[in-house]
Amino acid sequence: MNMIFLGPPGIGKGTHGEIVSRKYGIPRVSTGEIMREEVKKGTDLGNDIKSYMDSGELVPDELVINIIKKRINQKDCKRGFILDGFPRTVRQAKELGDITKIELVVNFVASEDEIIERITGRLTCRKCGAIYHVKNIPPKKEGVCDNCGGELYHREDQEEKAVERRMEVYEKSTKPLIEYYRKEGVLKDVDVEGGKEEVSKRINEVIKDFTESRGT
Ligand code: AMP
Questions:
Q1: If we measure between CA atoms, which residue out of 116, 197, 196 comes closest to residue 158?
Q2: CA 85 / ligand 1 centre spacing (Å)
Q3: Most CB within 10 Å of its CB: which of 12, 36, 83, 188?
Q4: Which domains does the chain show, CATH number per domain?
Q5: Does the pTM exceed 0.85?
């Protein structure tokens, strides 16, 4: 099952991607995470992309496309995958379509106020990458990851200025993908306002409908 979780930054694609990944036993592939890892390790690629990421700009298509090609060729993606944060431009979507068949695009829909609130309140674990929210998904102990005890931090690209830029970039470059995939007949909208459990249920329904309709 090859899926894309599509939607503005900070809307919960990562959180729900992880839940679905565990349920179906297919990996969640996040280009943002792969690239943050490169930055952390200080590789040549990491050094090239750091400034784009910190300021909320998109990393050039060629670089991200190469990363995704390598990643989805790996063995664990054979039975399918959930793409989170890729594609982000029509060019990326077209190139993805040349190398694999996308069967379902789950489109995360929320109001702008909700999006801003979610993204600015978000905390990330420095060690394992787990995601929290000061209000919606608070850690048991402030500043400490429930999973691994790592330190929680506010990602640099989630400061207000970068958030605004990421939203602009989303509107201009990524939003057109909604129509792109709607035309391909693979897009399903999911309202993601409300609690995590409720949203998770809605996403599961959409995936279940899809798997039943194709007879698996
Ligand atoms: P994310 O973790 O998906 O929110 O991504 C964090 C940042 O990584 C983005 O703001 C971009 O700078 C970069 N990034 C992640 N995925 C892509 C992509 N598909 N195309 C271009 N840049 C990306």
A1: 116
A2: 6
A3: 83
A4: 2-109+174-213 (3.40.50.300)
A5: yes
